Amino acid sequence: MTTAELAQFIDHTLLAPTATTADVAATIAEAARLGTKAVCLSPSVLPVQMPEGVDLSLAVVVGFPSGKHHSSIKAAEAALAAREGVDEVDMVIDIGAAIEGRYADVEADIRAVREAAPAPVLLKVIIESATLSDEAIVAVCEASERAGADFVKTSTGFHPAGGASVHAVALMAKTVGGRLGVKASGGVRTREQAEAMIAAGATRLGVSGSAALLADSATEGPVGY
């Protein structure tokens, strides 16, 4: 895989609470320079100026990072993002509901966001896979598909249980069977890790230290990505 090909798997990410307007602008410019697939930002920074003449998607997070927002709040956040012209929304499920096996509630939560930000906006569902059993991972992926999601995503990168794992990515990819994309996010810092996730079935990667990863060296980014 060439560096340019690898870059097209990456959502170049800035979700630090301390991010300034200048940080956001620099992240967008860096994503354009690196040739990443998308830039992923906090919804509060909208609207943003995207570079002209560059095929770069704009994604924002919803219900981030805890997922413990009411579904109506997540939906409102997603609707606002859609009005601001985002291409993609990455929402966090109610992780406690998934742990308890309340998959109908998880599905309803996802469906509320899907209805608030309909296609062509892409919907990625963050399941915080490190907190879930294999059974729960499968069930939540199935709920995501029923609710109309386009991707399932491993992690926020902010949970102490950890981020993406090859095992979780492979299980998620097997469950969705190519009908949905799979995004590996949280702790993907080296080219070796990135390629392992892709080999396991990831079709997107959430990365903050994209320049270092694409240069094939480890990053020392903030906790979260």
TrEMBL record:
It comes from the Bacteria. One of its GO terms (biological process) is deoxyribonucleotide catabolic process. GO terms for molecular function: deoxyribose-phosphate aldolase activity. It catalyses: 2-deoxy-D-ribose 5-phosphate = D-glyceraldehyde 3-phosphate + acetaldehyde. Keywords: Cytoplasm, Lyase, Schiff base. It is found in: Cytoplasm. This is Deoxyribose-phosphate aldolase. The gene is deoC.
